[in-house]
Design goal:
103 residues, 20% strand, single chain, alpha+beta, Ribosomal Protein L30, Chain: A
């Protein structure tokens, strides 16, 4: 059997136009059953707010009906929303989290 040497040239095209992932707003929706304490705790635990900032945001959620608590890439925003929702349901709170495109 005769072996034939072959040569393959591969051209690689570099994509230099890498786009940053789109950002999404994480929005807490006010309700009358989720406690202020839980909202503050979740802002501190999941979004690393200080106690003072978490308290101010919680007042904003209560007075305005909702508030943007973070602006993150979609995958991270979705994960944070799921984590907060799971934590709320474990404590029997109906807290709703909404994601919206930023911009």
């Amino acid at each position: 059997m005769t072996q034939i040497a072959t040569s393959t040239n591969t051209k690689i095209q570099i994509n230099s136009e890498i786009k940053e992932p789109p950002l999404f707003k994480v929005i807490y929706i006010n309700d009358e059953l989720t406690t202020v304490e839980f909202v503050i705790e979740s802002l501190i635990e999941f979004f690393e707010y200080s106690v003072e900032s978490a308290e101010q945001i919680t007042v904003g959620i209560h007075t305005s009906g909702s508030a943007v608590v973070a602006v993150l890439p979609y995958e991270i925003a979705e994960q944070k929303g799921i984590e907060v929702t799971v934590s709320a349901r474990q404590r029997n709170f109906p807290l709703q989290i909404k994601l919206e495109p930023n911009g």
